[in-house]
Amino acid sequence: MKPWALILGSSSGFGEAVGVFLAEKGMNIAGVHLDRRQTLPQVAAIVEKIESLKSQALFFNQNAADPETRKKVIAELKRETAGQPIKCVLHSLAFGSLKSFVDEKSSEMLTQKQMDMTLDVMAHSLVYWVQDLFSAGLLSSGSQIFAMTSAGGHRVWPTYGAVSAAKAALESHVRQLALELSPKQIAVNAIQAGVTDTPALRRIPGSDQMKDFARLKNPGKRLTETVDVAKAIWALCQNESHWLTGNVVRVDGGEDLIG
Known about the structure:
By secondary structure, this protein is α/β, with parallel strands linked by helices. It has eight helices and seven strands; from the N terminus they run E-H-E-H-E-H-E-H-E-H-E-H-H-H-E. The protein has one domain: Rossmann fold.
Protein backbone atom coordinates (compact mmCIF):
# COMPACT_ATOMS: atom_id res chain seq x y z
CA MET A 1 0.00 0.00 0.00
CA LYS A 2 1.39 3.40 -0.99
CA PRO A 3 2.16 5.85 1.83
CA TRP A 4 0.17 9.08 2.05
CA ALA A 5 1.23 12.71 2.25
CA LEU A 6 -1.08 15.50 3.43
CA ILE A 7 -0.31 18.95 2.07
CA LEU A 8 -1.96 22.05 3.48
CA GLY A 9 -1.68 24.65 0.76
CA SER A 10 -1.42 22.27 -2.17
CA SER A 11 -2.42 24.32 -5.22
CA SER A 12 0.68 26.42 -5.90
CA GLY A 13 4.22 27.19 -4.84
CA PHE A 14 5.89 24.82 -2.41
CA GLY A 15 2.76 22.75 -1.81
CA GLU A 16 2.28 22.06 -5.50
CA ALA A 17 5.93 21.16 -6.07
CA VAL A 18 6.12 18.87 -3.05
CA GLY A 19 2.87 17.12 -3.93
CA VAL A 20 3.93 16.33 -7.49
CA PHE A 21 7.45 15.31 -6.47
CA LEU A 22 6.23 12.97 -3.72
CA ALA A 23 3.75 11.45 -6.17
CA GLU A 24 6.66 10.82 -8.55
CA LYS A 25 8.33 8.97 -5.70
CA GLY A 26 5.30 6.76 -5.14
CA MET A 27 3.19 8.53 -2.53
CA ASN A 28 -0.54 9.25 -2.58
CA ILE A 29 -1.38 12.91 -2.07
CA ALA A 30 -4.14 14.54 -0.04
CA GLY A 31 -4.29 18.29 -0.50
CA VAL A 32 -6.20 21.17 1.06
CA HIS A 33 -6.29 24.46 -0.81
CA LEU A 34 -8.50 27.53 -1.15
CA ASP A 35 -8.99 28.66 -4.74
CA ARG A 36 -11.46 30.78 -6.65
CA ARG A 37 -12.93 29.76 -9.99
CA GLN A 38 -10.18 31.36 -12.07
CA THR A 39 -7.41 29.27 -10.50
CA LEU A 40 -9.26 25.96 -10.34
CA PRO A 41 -7.90 24.83 -13.74
CA GLN A 42 -4.42 24.94 -12.18
CA VAL A 43 -5.64 22.68 -9.37
CA ALA A 44 -7.18 20.28 -11.90
CA ALA A 45 -3.84 20.13 -13.72
CA ILE A 46 -2.06 19.22 -10.49
CA VAL A 47 -4.55 16.46 -9.73
CA GLU A 48 -4.22 15.15 -13.29
CA LYS A 49 -0.43 15.13 -13.00
CA ILE A 50 -0.51 13.21 -9.70
CA GLU A 51 -2.97 10.65 -11.09
CA SER A 52 -0.88 10.25 -14.25
CA LEU A 53 1.91 9.10 -11.91
CA LYS A 54 -0.38 6.27 -10.71
CA SER A 55 -0.91 7.92 -7.32
CA GLN A 56 -4.18 8.90 -5.68
CA ALA A 57 -5.08 12.56 -5.40
CA LEU A 58 -7.61 13.53 -2.75
CA PHE A 59 -8.03 17.32 -2.94
CA PHE A 60 -10.32 19.63 -0.96
CA ASN A 61 -11.06 23.22 -1.99
CA GLN A 62 -11.68 24.40 1.56
CA ASN A 63 -10.28 26.82 4.13
CA ALA A 64 -7.60 24.79 5.93
CA ALA A 65 -7.81 27.07 8.97
CA ASP A 66 -11.49 26.28 9.53
CA PRO A 67 -12.21 23.66 12.23
CA GLU A 68 -15.09 22.13 10.26
CA THR A 69 -12.87 21.73 7.21
CA ARG A 70 -10.24 20.04 9.34
CA LYS A 71 -12.81 17.63 10.77
CA LYS A 72 -14.20 16.79 7.32
CA VAL A 73 -10.81 16.27 5.68
CA ILE A 74 -9.49 14.08 8.47
CA ALA A 75 -12.63 11.93 8.45
CA GLU A 76 -12.41 11.39 4.69
CA LEU A 77 -8.68 10.83 4.81
CA LYS A 78 -9.09 8.21 7.51
CA ARG A 79 -11.64 6.37 5.37
CA GLU A 80 -9.53 6.62 2.23
CA THR A 81 -6.36 5.39 3.93
CA ALA A 82 -8.17 2.72 5.95
CA GLY A 83 -6.53 4.25 9.00
CA GLN A 84 -3.02 3.93 7.60
CA PRO A 85 -0.81 6.56 9.31
CA ILE A 86 0.30 9.49 7.15
CA LYS A 87 3.99 9.46 6.31
CA CYS A 88 4.39 13.15 5.51
CA VAL A 89 2.46 16.26 6.57
CA LEU A 90 3.40 19.61 5.02
CA HIS A 91 2.01 22.87 6.40
CA SER A 92 2.45 25.43 3.61
CA LEU A 93 -0.33 27.94 4.17
CA ALA A 94 0.52 31.40 2.83
CA PHE A 95 -2.41 33.66 3.59
CA GLY A 96 -1.81 36.69 5.74
CA SER A 97 -2.02 40.45 5.93
CA LEU A 98 0.71 42.58 4.37
CA LYS A 99 0.12 45.93 6.07
CA SER A 100 2.41 48.14 8.11
CA PHE A 101 2.08 48.23 11.86
CA VAL A 102 2.29 52.05 11.79
CA ASP A 103 1.25 54.41 9.01
CA GLU A 104 0.49 58.11 8.62
CA LYS A 105 -3.00 57.01 7.64
CA SER A 106 -4.58 55.09 10.48
CA SER A 107 -6.82 53.30 7.99
CA GLU A 108 -3.70 51.70 6.47
CA MET A 109 -2.42 50.26 9.75
CA LEU A 110 -2.63 46.55 10.52
CA THR A 111 -5.71 45.77 12.60
CA GLN A 112 -6.04 43.32 15.46
CA LYS A 113 -8.34 41.18 13.33
CA GLN A 114 -5.73 41.02 10.54
CA MET A 115 -2.96 40.16 12.98
CA ASP A 116 -5.02 37.43 14.61
CA MET A 117 -6.03 35.98 11.23
CA THR A 118 -2.45 35.92 9.96
CA LEU A 119 -1.10 34.10 13.00
CA ASP A 120 -4.05 31.70 13.12
CA VAL A 121 -3.70 30.63 9.48
CA MET A 122 0.07 30.68 9.08
CA ALA A 123 1.12 29.43 12.53
CA HIS A 124 -1.50 28.23 14.99
CA SER A 125 -3.34 26.04 12.48
CA LEU A 126 -0.31 23.73 12.42
CA VAL A 127 -0.95 22.83 16.06
CA TYR A 128 -4.65 22.18 15.51
CA TRP A 129 -4.04 19.93 12.51
CA VAL A 130 -1.42 17.91 14.37
CA GLN A 131 -3.70 17.55 17.38
CA ASP A 132 -6.61 16.23 15.32
CA LEU A 133 -4.48 14.00 13.09
CA PHE A 134 -2.89 12.47 16.18
CA SER A 135 -6.26 11.94 17.87
CA ALA A 136 -7.55 10.25 14.70
CA GLY A 137 -4.65 7.80 14.74
CA LEU A 138 -3.23 9.19 11.49
CA LEU A 139 0.16 10.03 13.01
CA SER A 140 2.41 7.34 14.42
CA SER A 141 6.02 6.19 14.58
CA GLY A 142 7.79 7.24 11.39
CA SER A 143 5.48 10.13 10.52
CA GLN A 144 7.26 13.30 9.43
CA ILE A 145 5.74 16.77 9.90
CA PHE A 146 7.10 19.82 8.08
CA ALA A 147 6.16 23.50 8.27
CA MET A 148 7.27 26.12 5.77
CA THR A 149 9.02 29.07 7.38
CA SER A 150 11.28 31.76 5.95
CA ALA A 151 14.09 34.12 6.88
CA GLY A 152 11.24 36.48 7.74
CA GLY A 153 11.02 34.67 11.05
CA HIS A 154 14.14 36.55 12.15
CA ARG A 155 14.57 39.30 9.55
CA VAL A 156 12.40 42.30 8.70
CA TRP A 157 10.87 43.71 5.52
CA PRO A 158 8.39 46.56 5.09
CA THR A 159 4.76 45.40 5.48
CA TYR A 160 5.92 41.88 6.46
CA GLY A 161 5.42 42.36 10.20
CA ALA A 162 2.39 40.14 10.73
CA VAL A 163 3.78 37.35 8.54
CA SER A 164 7.16 37.64 10.26
CA ALA A 165 5.42 37.21 13.61
CA ALA A 166 3.57 34.19 12.23
CA LYS A 167 6.80 32.58 11.02
CA ALA A 168 8.45 33.11 14.41
CA ALA A 169 5.43 31.59 16.13
CA LEU A 170 5.40 28.70 13.66
CA GLU A 171 9.01 27.86 14.49
CA SER A 172 8.15 27.94 18.19
CA HIS A 173 5.24 25.56 17.58
CA VAL A 174 7.57 23.22 15.68
CA ARG A 175 9.92 23.06 18.67
CA GLN A 176 7.10 22.36 21.11
CA LEU A 177 5.50 19.71 18.90
CA ALA A 178 8.88 18.08 18.41
CA LEU A 179 9.32 17.87 22.17
CA GLU A 180 5.89 16.38 22.78
CA LEU A 181 5.91 13.95 19.84
CA SER A 182 9.46 12.68 20.25
CA PRO A 183 8.38 9.86 22.60
CA LYS A 184 5.99 8.74 19.84
CA GLN A 185 8.87 8.71 17.31
CA ILE A 186 7.22 11.42 15.21
CA ALA A 187 9.55 14.08 13.82
CA VAL A 188 8.61 17.75 13.40
CA ASN A 189 10.80 20.21 11.53
CA ALA A 190 10.52 23.62 9.89
CA ILE A 191 11.82 24.14 6.36
CA GLN A 192 13.32 27.58 5.73
CA ALA A 193 13.39 28.12 1.99
CA GLY A 194 15.42 30.87 0.41
CA VAL A 195 13.69 33.58 -1.59
CA THR A 196 11.56 31.70 -4.13
CA ASP A 197 9.49 33.13 -6.96
CA THR A 198 6.08 31.86 -5.89
CA PRO A 199 2.60 33.44 -6.07
CA ALA A 200 2.85 34.14 -2.33
CA LEU A 201 6.12 36.03 -2.73
CA ARG A 202 4.76 38.12 -5.61
CA ARG A 203 2.03 39.46 -3.32
CA ILE A 204 4.65 41.06 -1.06
CA PRO A 205 5.23 44.74 -1.92
CA GLY A 206 8.82 45.10 -3.12
CA SER A 207 9.17 41.41 -4.01
CA ASP A 208 11.14 42.20 -7.19
CA GLN A 209 13.72 44.04 -5.10
CA MET A 210 13.76 41.11 -2.67
CA LYS A 211 14.49 38.69 -5.52
CA ASP A 212 17.25 40.89 -6.94
CA PHE A 213 18.93 41.13 -3.54
CA ALA A 214 18.67 37.36 -3.02
CA ARG A 215 20.30 36.66 -6.38
CA LEU A 216 23.20 38.95 -5.49
CA LYS A 217 23.91 37.50 -2.06
CA ASN A 218 23.11 33.81 -2.61
CA PRO A 219 26.34 31.82 -2.98
CA GLY A 220 24.61 29.78 -5.71
CA LYS A 221 23.85 32.98 -7.65
CA ARG A 222 20.20 32.04 -8.20
CA LEU A 223 16.90 32.03 -6.39
CA THR A 224 15.72 28.96 -4.53
CA GLU A 225 13.28 26.89 -6.59
CA THR A 226 10.27 25.02 -5.29
CA VAL A 227 11.79 21.74 -6.47
CA ASP A 228 14.77 22.37 -4.16
CA VAL A 229 12.37 22.21 -1.24
CA ALA A 230 10.55 19.18 -2.66
CA LYS A 231 13.81 17.27 -2.95
CA ALA A 232 14.81 18.18 0.61
CA ILE A 233 11.48 17.05 2.05
CA TRP A 234 11.66 13.79 0.12
CA ALA A 235 15.18 13.19 1.48
CA LEU A 236 14.02 13.87 5.03
CA CYS A 237 11.03 11.56 4.55
CA GLN A 238 13.47 8.75 3.79
CA ASN A 239 15.10 9.31 7.16
CA GLU A 240 13.74 6.56 9.41
CA SER A 241 15.12 8.24 12.53
CA HIS A 242 12.82 10.44 14.55
CA TRP A 243 15.98 11.80 16.20
CA LEU A 244 16.24 14.58 13.59
CA THR A 245 13.50 16.78 14.99
CA GLY A 246 12.79 20.29 16.24
CA ASN A 247 15.02 21.96 13.66
CA VAL A 248 14.80 24.83 11.24
CA VAL A 249 16.31 23.22 8.12
CA ARG A 250 17.58 25.84 5.68
CA VAL A 251 17.02 24.96 2.01
CA ASP A 252 18.48 28.12 0.50
CA GLY A 253 21.90 27.39 -0.98
CA GLY A 254 23.51 29.25 1.91
CA GLU A 255 21.52 32.46 1.31
CA ASP A 256 20.75 33.13 4.96
CA LEU A 257 24.43 32.84 5.93
CA ILE A 258 25.08 36.20 4.27
CA GLY A 259 23.44 39.22 5.87
